């Protein structure tokens, strides 16, 4: 029987003597957690979109839906129409009337009025503007003459607040020259054209004012009377020739002395 082999003498640090490790990754099955699909859809926009502190400019567009053709074509209303309207109610009817409109107007526009959702430079749906004036009619029993008076007062307030450039309209000629741009300060997508200007009269044509109703046209009439009187005119008379009801157009004459 041969003697047992002696262990081989290996120099210290020989790499061949270092232990080696080997392993094999086991195949795993990926498990996707089941998440409520409606919850996923509601969270996805929040995860993908940055958080903006400013509310959307078109508040009537339903979340998750593109605006319809009629919504896309409707007039958009500058926020100052709402804020100056409230200030006019305060001036003409008192603080309790303004508080009533702010507290008792329902729907999305009511929430916007109560919680500061309207900014003077923002653009909003004409649907909100109709609801705003419906609340004024219902809560204050405001008739057509009242709508004209509020519109006239609100226009004066808006000039003092934001549109001081309009204060330069001191003659009928300057009024006609700035009429189209002036209308664009307050409403977007509609159009105004002043024709046949004479020293003491002119004809005005509004078109493409989709979403307007008779009350809004009364407010526009009051605004026109204010601008004409601002030029120094007296005894202003405004007469509607056609439209001016629940229509997108109005043709009217204005006369003064």
Q: In total, how many beta strands?
A: 7
Beta-strand residue fraction: 5-15%
Average pLDDT confidence is 79
Q: Counting H and I runs of at least 4 residues, what is the number of helices?
A: 9
List low-pLDDT spans: 15-26, 28-33, 35-67
Give the neighbour order of strands across the main sheet. Answer: 4-5-7-6
- Calculate Rg over CA atoms: 34 Å
End-to-end distance: 141 Å
Order of helices and strands: HHEHHHEHHHEEEHEE
Structural class: alpha+beta
Based on Cα principal axes, name the global outline. globular
Task: Characterise the protein shown here.
The protein is of the alpha+beta class. Among the domains are: 86 residues; 87 residues. Helices cover 44% and strands 14% of the residues. It has 9 helices and 7 strands, in the order ααβαααβαααβββαββ. It has a 4-stranded antiparallel β-sheet with strand order 4-5-7-6, covered by helices on one side. β6 and β7 form a beta hairpin. α4 packs across α5 and α7 packs across α9. It is globular, with a radius of gyration of 34 Å.
Produce a short descriptive summary.
The protein is α+β, with helices and mostly antiparallel strands and about 260 residues long. Among the domains are: about 75-160; about 170-255. Helices cover about 45% and strands about 15% of the residues.
């Amino acid at each position: 029987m041969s003697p047992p082999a002696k262990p081989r003498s290996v120099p210290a640090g020989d790499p061949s003597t270092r232990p080696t490790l080997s392993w094999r990754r086991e195949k795993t099955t990926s498990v996707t957690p089941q998440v409520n699909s409606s919850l996923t859809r509601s969270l996805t926009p929040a995860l993908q979109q940055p958080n903006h502190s400013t509310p959307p400019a078109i508040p009537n567009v339903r979340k998750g839906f593109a605006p319809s053709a009629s919504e896309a074509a409707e007039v958009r209303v500058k926020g100052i129409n709402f804020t100056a309207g409230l200030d006019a109610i305060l001036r003409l009817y008192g603080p309790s009337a303004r508080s009533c409109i702010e507290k008792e107007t329902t729907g999305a526009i009511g929430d916007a009025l109560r919680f500061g959702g309207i900014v003077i430079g923002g653009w909003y749906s004409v649907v909100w503007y109709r609801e705003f004036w419906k609340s004024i009619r219902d809560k204050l029993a405001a008739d057509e003459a009242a709508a004209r008076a509020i519109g006239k007062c609100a226009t004066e307030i808006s000039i003092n607040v934001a549109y001081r450039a309009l204060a330069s309209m001191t003659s009928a000629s300057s009024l006609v020259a700035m009429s189209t741009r002036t209308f664009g300060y307050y409403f977007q997508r509609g159009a105004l054209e002043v024709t046949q200007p004479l020293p003491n009269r002119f004809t005005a044509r509004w078109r493409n004012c989709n979403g307007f109703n008779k009350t809004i046209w009364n407010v526009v009439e009051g605004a026109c009377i204010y601008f004409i009187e601002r030029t120094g005119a007296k005894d202003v008379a405004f007469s509607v020739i056609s439209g001016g009801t629940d229509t997108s157009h109005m043709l009217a004459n204005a006369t003064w002395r």
